[in-house]
Amino acid sequence: MNSPESAAESAVAAPICSAKGCRADAVWVLAWNNPKLHTPERRKTWLACEEHREHLSSFLGVRGFLKDVVTLAEWESGRSGTEGSQGPGPDGPPGTERP
Ligand SMILES: [Zn+2]
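That is the input. Now the predicted structure with zinc ion docked in place:
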């Protein structure tokens, strides 16, 4: 089934950083996987601006979730043909963890 919604979603201009409260244009894509929640092949993605790339990647890195960090342009050129959701997704943005 082809949903017109998914096409509209990918047409959204200027994706923004996934960092909490940040509205800057995303430059980087952080690909990650939580082995407790996801199958090994699964990739969740966070978007990051230049400023938050390090913060977000270390957030994922210390948990052992971080798989890949690529530029947004590189990510989009490399993911043609693969399906997947873009953006922070249902797992929520960083900064929402409980103390
Ligand atoms: Zn940011």
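The chain has three helices and three strands.
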